[in-house]
Design a protein that fits this description.
With 344 residues, the chain is α+β, with helices and mostly antiparallel strands. Helices cover 39% and strands 28% of the residues. Strand 11 and strand 12 form a beta hairpin. The radius of gyration is 21 Å and the shape is flat. The protein starts with a strand and ends with a helix.
Length: 344
Amino acid sequence: MLGTKIGFDLGTTTIAANVDGKGIKINEPSVIVYDCFEEKVKAIGKEAYKMLGKTPDYLTAIRPIIDGDIYDYGALEQMLCYFIQKICGNRILKPSIIACVPSETNEIDKKTVTDLLISSGAARACVIEEPLAAALGAGVSIKNPEGVLIVDIGGGTTDIAVVTRGCIANSSSVGIAGNAFDEDICRFARRERDTVIGSITAEKVKKQVGAAKFLDAELAVRAVGKDYITKLPKSIELTSTDIFLCIREHLEKIVESIKLLLSGTQPELVADIAKNGMIITGGGANIRGIDDYFRTKFGFNVKCAESPELCVANGLGVLLDDIKVLEENGYVFRSYADMNDFEE
């Protein structure tokens, strides 16, 4: 396969790109800022993220992907063009691209994403399910015949899948993940502290003191927002216990989704899971004690992957090294000619 090979993790909050032979070269927020007066892009990625919640009227900040679904195709295409250009420069040969989508994405949406990749500059493109890439990035062998349970807690969705022999045997996706936890923290601050804080502040609090259990040594951090009544600046203290109490309901819903998936999984695979356990990937795996939380709920071994937020991107790197594995498992690369044939 000629040209550069790139794997894109199209996350709700972050876009990561793994380049064959070079590793992860892009890991930036999935945000784009438009200048409405000049009708052009003002900033993309890290620079755009700094403007979230702070833009004047003539600037609009957009997250092209919301809860795992593409919200603004034009904005996402511009972001992909920018990152592809950043990686490939002015090379004559266009890259071959693999991208990830949530596990429950239907065939029509998969084709739409493939077409978007091609129109953004790919010579050939293929889409795969996020949990498969996450499993490979967490160290699961693509030839492993035993079932492994993967729970990928991202920004917009939590993807749950049973992976075996480099394929997904059963999967589901639930719209509860990091962004929902941030909203929980915002509501808690408003309800319990009479303070309005933004989603960026809530995310920082989650990263600094977030916990999925009562910690022996409680952590605390100060968050600054505005008083709900007076609208004046106000600083409050939030603890790890506060965060656990306010995200616990959503954690329970993820548990119920996992139980529902297991109820529809073949008995032999469930037996494998009882032996091999569960692997948590995605940024949500960084919440303190989340492995202990799930372990108490299910009774089998649960572990968090190393560098969990990069598991999908690292898994794409594994596939870039051996693209034939995808074709052997039924995944199809499409080109611009295939787009035209379909339209005709």
